[in-house]
Design brief:
Elements: E1 2-3, E2 8-9, E3 27-31, E4 36-43, E5 57-79, E6 82-84, E7 90-93, E8 96-115, E9 127-138, E10 148-154, E11 158-170, H1 197-204, H2 218-222, E12 229-238, E13 245-248, H3 250-256, E14 257-273, E15 279-295, E16 303-317
């Protein structure tokens, strides 16, 4: 451990109270088998379909395996500031201290399908996502109760800042339903709107027999059946809070603009212990990235919004 007057560079240690709500993250996490699922709508021209059957987009679903690593960067990154009295005179220093965790997310596809069939879904074993980033916990001088930040960069040409807050409760998490259907393509009813046929295809024929992109978080809830969860820490961040946002390279902005992201992570402490005698830890998440492409059909301004939804359940791996 290296110390200075201003900050502390530390090795990863699970359970370090100095890390606040991030204290259970350091280390390595791996997917529980058959728990990683992803759904995305993409612009696509199907030259082989008849005009009446053409949607100009396809829905891609896949299952995946994930490895997620967290390490402590610093327990006290200082943001310098000044405090003022009511008349505006400078009276004192008011520095903010930030806990910083580095993370690296690596995702490999295990199976995939799309509709209309494009031939572009990719084979098993394909690396489909790599994301380095940072989690921050603002210890003091918070704004509007915002004590968390997530910074991420994605090889497609996107970078983001999402802000939010943390909470802790006894028992299992409350996982909300997330609808995977687009916003702005009315009516939003897969049984009456033929334009939503790609979604109806997977609703009527769930991917691998279980995954329905219309209600993607259902599998997260089901994966908790029979699991004795003692305590849950919730980390929730959103790019549409305060100064958050997403920046994309020009092609992405023009073709399928990633305009917003919201993600919730549930860190679960189980009553069960592993073979080393440590309490078992699980990490579940639901993430929604809003992609914007094609004009809305509900007479409102702007573009239609297409949810790109990823869910997974991971377990802490002890070396």
């Amino acid at each position: 451990m290296k110390k200075s007057k201003e900050r502390c560079i530390c090795t990863a240690r699970t359970g370090d109270d100095d890390l606040g709500p991030l204290k259970l993250l350091p280390g390595k996490w791996k997917s529980v088998p058959e728990q990683g699922w992803n759904m995305i709508a993409l612009p696509f021209f199907d030259k082989d379909s008849a005009p009446k059957d053409r949607f100009n987009y396809r829905v891609l679903v896949n299952s995946f395996e994930e490895e997620l690593k967290f390490s402590v960067v610093d327990k006290a990154v200082p943001n310098r500031g000044l405090g003022h009295n009511k008349t505006g005179d400078v009276r004192f220093n008011t520095d903010q201290l930030v806990v910083t965790l580095d993370y690296e997310q690596m995702i490999t596809q295990t199976d995939s399908a799309d509709f209309p069939v494009s031939g572009l879904a990719g084979p098993p074993g394909l690396a489909i996502h790599h994301e380095p980033g940072l989690w921050l916990h603002m210890i003091n001088e918070t704004t509007n109760d915002i004590d968390l930040a997530r910074l991420a960069t994605i090889p497609h040409g996107d970078s983001l800042l999402a802000l939010g807050s943390s909470s802790r409760k006894d028992g299992a998490p409350d996982i909300p339903m997330i609808r995977g259907l687009p916003i702005g393509t009315v009516p939003v009813d897969i049984d009456t709107n033929p334009y939503l046929a790609p979604y109806k295809h997977f609703h009527d024929n769930p991917f691998k027999g279980v995954y329905d992109p219309v209600n993607p978080t259902k599998l997260l809830v089901e994966s908790n059946d029979g699991v004795d969860i003692k305590r849950t820490t919730t980390l929730s961040v959103d790019t549409e809070i305060e100064t958050g946002g997403i920046k994309n390279i020009p092609f992405v902005t023009k073709q399928a603009n990633a305009s917003a992201m919201k993600s919730t992570f549930w860190i679960e402490e189980l009553c069960e212990k592993d073979k080393h005698g440590y309490p078992k830890l699980r990490l579940q998440y639901a993430q929604v990235v809003i992609l914007e492409f094609f004009g809305r059909l509900d007479q409102l301004p702007g573009l239609a919004q297409w949810p790109h939804v990823s869910i997974n359940t991971l377990e802490k791996v002890y070396d």
